[in-house]
Batch of 2 targets.
Target 1
Amino acid sequence: MSELTNIQTLLQIMARLRDPQGGCPWDLEQDFASIAPYTVEEAYEVADAIDRNDLPDLKDELGDLLLQVVFHAQMASEQGAFDFGDVVASISNKMIRRHPHIFGNAEVSDADEVLANWDQIKRSERAAKGEQDDSALAGISRGLPEWLRATKLQSRAARTGFDWPDAVPVLDKLREEIDELQAEFELAAAGADNQVRLQEELGDVLFVCANLARHAKVDSGTALRHANHKFERRFRAMEALAAARGTAMPQLDLQQQEALWQQVKQQEKDSAR
């Protein structure tokens, strides 16, 4: 193993960057809270590379994500809390503990039984820590992106039987929630001070959309990421068309901009044939 592929080299680099005597000024200023947003961002960059099936980029993004783990571990080590070795030991022990059908004597017949065992083991772990929450929803982190937390809440509830049988009633529920949201918008247009209700009804619509994605076996984040990419691609094409005509988007009225949008969509359809 070459020096640069050894995890100890990366740990030493991070320790050097955090060295009070001659370390990097930016790295020395950071703490857990300031680094946390970068950790989340790097996880999304990994997901984006996977979505694009860009394996060379995935290698780089996984390295960036690993650096985040090393950074947090280094800061914890400086406080005497834990170090990178403790992180590795913790996850290794957890994986062995939660896979008794591989590392123990338990038997499972399919992936559903694996998940059921996983949940039971997690409940036992929480109980061992003194946690009293025995709800089926216990342990779902409040730090998750809300679309992901919505899906996890719905999935956990579904394991108790509390779920729609298929997507049809979910679509009916979505129409119902949209009608309620539209009513609130109409009240707002009439002068009502109903911002709280607008937020609540919009939240209900988004929650049902997450449920619909779950029934479709579609990841909400991936679906929205694709929609974002599509919008960006089309909007940039609109800007290019406008520039080719010697104008800019802000100089066009909404009807003219909509015409460009439809032109871009048609061009995409024609190129796909």
Target 2
Amino acid sequence: MWDFDIGRTLGIMARTWPFIALRLIVYFAITLAYILATGTGAGVGYGLGRIWDDPGMFALFGGFIGFGLVSAVLYWLREYILYLVKAGHVAVIVHLVEGREVPEGRGQIDYATSLVRARFAEASVLFVVDQLIKGVLRVVTGLIGGIANALPIPGLQAAAGFANSVIRISLTYVDEIILGYNIREGSDDPFDGARRGLVLYAQNGGRMVKNAVWLALFMWLIALVIFLLMLGPAAAVLYLMPGALAGWSFALAIVFAWAIKAALLEPFAIAALMQVYFRTIEGQSPDPDWDRKLSDASRHFRELKDRAASAFGGRPAGQTP
């Protein structure tokens, strides 16, 4: 079974309600942008299509273009969403997991923003660290699950491949856990903090992945239910739009479900995993063997180490001149 406390996790979420509200605003604003862009694109396409006597097809392509434009804008804004919303929420969750007091109301967001700025001066630094962590986590999955793949047991390779796929899905929120470790430790260099956090995660990979898999199963089951519930409202919205856009109800239902998942379910998973991670690594130091394994297997991990060393004037982090 899992090692996190569901009641305590819900309590932490309740105490971070300013960030929950902020996430709801941000992610439903994104959903509204998709609806408006899709509808506007469909309307323009429908109007142009009447000229060529095929308004339905033009409306479909117009909706697709509007949907794609919003996706492109969000792709370029993703590092600022990470910096302003996700990282601040992680910082508050870290303090609550540690039993510290945090401000209530609007002051909580200001407080969290100051914590993030203390560790990551610019959004671009946090974004680079986050992307490097994601790259290393793909390798961690292989190192943890690779033993089963190598065993010459008939049928085991297929089972191991399925298990590795589940593990990869379950690692969605681990980059936020490593970010939380960085904030908790108050490292002078976020790259070295991420390196140490990843080594600690890898050396406790079995326990961490077990809990991450449980959470992933919960999250995707709930997200599926939300998606099915959202099909009706999404179809109703598209019914009011011009042209043959019924197929877009499926896409918009996914967007609705994603917004709820990002606003409400992700913080739950992060708070739950953070409890397990901090409790597991208590009193531990990064294992040099795992540091070496990750260095050999991941260029992203080597880049983390190189950036940490360059931040200390070419010395390995933590080494005195």
